[in-house]
Amino acid sequence: MIQFGTGGWRARIGEDFTCDNVRRVGGAVCAWLKGNGRTDRPVIIGYDRRFLSCEAAKWLAEGFCAQGFQVLFLHRSAPTPLLMHTVLKQHLHCALQVTASHNPAIYNGIKLIVEEGRDAPVETTQRIEALANGTALDTRFVPFAVGEANGSIQYVKNPFNDFLDDILARINGQAIRDRGLRILFDSMHGSGTYALMVILHTVRCTVDVIHTERDAYFGGIAPAPSEHSLGELSEKVVDGGYDLGIALDGDGDRLGIIDSSGRYIAANEILVMLYYYLHEYKGWKGPVVRNMSTTHMLDAVANALGEACYEVPVGFKWISAKIDEVDAVLGGESSGGLTVRGHIHGKDSAYAAALFVEMVSAMNASPARIMADLTARFGSFEMADSDFSYPAEQKPQLTHLLFEQKALPAFDRPVRRVSYEDGCKVYFEDGGFVVCRFSGTEPLLRFCAEADTKEKALASIQAFKDMLKL
After folding, report:
1. pLDDT at site 139
2. Region of residue 158 (phi > 0: left; psi between -120 and 50: alpha; otherwise: beta)
3. 376: enclosing H helix or E strand
4. Which stretch of DSSP H or E encloses residue 354?
């Protein structure tokens, strides 16, 4: 069965990610476009650097050509934000990006981007699931070479130019030039290398790089810029005397930062620092948006600045929609994705990294120093997280216990309220929280918690695990 999660359709290569299933997803998108009268504009197709990504993109293109669509094909791997930007600027109906983002190397998938460069809403992906899993699906295709020859497949000319120019126009390049940072960039073997390298070189940063070559196994680790995966970057930043380490995930929409001391700067900290910088230094007034698993320090900062912080479910589509609704300065999530007012309606690590470099340059302080000052002012917010991999047959039992019986552990502190809007989130009277939810992209039960100490956050997670006998 084809099933979309919060980040599109993802599946294990060779099991469910197969040529036949890729053609089924493409056929379902064709049927959805035709059913909504959206056949008048080209469909853009891109891919990241995973195993089979380029080939799968061609399988998609072959299917769209067979059904009469004009295909704009990227002639090289590209980050997902580039496709979002292209859909927005060229007023296209949709794009398909072959990627499994930060998932382990055994996965690949397809991300659907719709009008205005947005993540496809739930009602759209549900309709495409139904079409893909139906019996009357048209999966005809013509050979890729035939599509090239008859002009139904055309290559996008200079796809990065508008994307890069828009970002460069939005940042304070002079502040960065004046500071002259030395940066070590870890592309994690992903597709975000070119865009960020051009931006950093244009504003005169000195940049060295690691892990830029294509590697279908991503060096043996998942291409997610986490504290665990950036150990090598941390060591090399310190050994080389760099001002910053920057890392992007596999498809270039998540950001990781290493301080000059080798300290990993968590995604929650990046969000807090950037929101404070944009609001107080650049004068971008307005609220902030976060998902339910992201730090409540954003709430404390927003409140102190006379602004609001809005909480939404997990899935960047909810963040981008809320940004538009309330005209928020910034929206982001604890997994490393963010965007800001006036940019694309999805995560973009190239722009986020450029803004972070601008912040460090303009404030003339290291990320660790900036974060220490904010903690002294707004309080300590310590986050902990943990994932549990479960066999498929155990999910109904876990679902029944958590979301039908609504069982809760016996916590060691008073509970203020419980929300089941997306998983189970327990809000404590002291301002902390703990979340338990199924991942929308992998067969995992995810836990995250926040408190004024790491020990209290870990204890909340452990209480859930003890109850579930994990």
Report:
1. 95
2. left
3. helix 367-378
4. helix 349-363
Say if residues 292 and 319 touch (Cβ distance below 8 Å).
Answer: no
Is there a contact between 79 and 192 (Cβ–Cβ < 8 Å)? Answer: yes
Residue type, 68: G
Question: Which helix (H) or strand (E) element contains residue 89?
Answer: helix 80-90
Q: Which amino acid is at 318?
A: W
Where do runs of H (alpha helix) occur along 379-416?
Answer: 395-399
The residues, ordered by sequence, that sit 6+ positions from 321 with a Cβ below 8 Å of its Cβ are 118, 312
Whole-number Å distance between alpha carbons of 91 and 85: 10
Residue 93 is predicted with a pLDDT of: 97
Q: For 367, how many CA atoms within 13 A lie in the half-sphere containing its CB?
A: 30
- Total Cβ atoms within 10 A of residue 63: 25
Of the CA atoms within 13 Å of residue 193, those in its CB half-sphere come to: 18
pLDDT number for residue 7: 81
418 CB burial (10 A radius; 0-12, 13-18, 19+) = exposed
Burial 115-126 (b: 16+ CB within 10 A, else e): eebbbbeeebbe
Instruction: At 259, list the tokens.
Output: 């301080």
Residue with tokens 């102190």: 304
pLDDT digits (tens, 9 = 90+) for 257-275: 999 999 999 999 999 999 9
The residue ranges of the chain whose pLDDT is under 70 are none
Quick check: helix, strand or coil at residue 103?
Answer: coil
pLDDT at position 463: 95
The residue with tokens 């992201």 is 294
Give me the DSSP letters along 196-254: HHHHHHHTT-EEEEES-S--TTGGGS-S---TTTTHHHHHHHHHHT-SEEEEE-TTS--
Q: What is the pLDDT of residues 86-137, one digit of tens each?
A: 999 999 999 999 999 999 999 999 999 999 999 999 999 999 999 999 989 9
**CB neighbours of residue 414 within 10 Å:** 8
pLDDT of residue 99: 97
* Cα gap 112→320, rounded to integer Å: 15
Q: What integer pLDDT is reported at residue 391 of this predicted model?
A: 84
Q: What is the pTM of this model?
A: 0.93
Token readout for 317 is: 């589509």
Q: What is the pLDDT of residue 96?
A: 98
Residue 346 near residue 80, CB atoms below 8 Å: yes
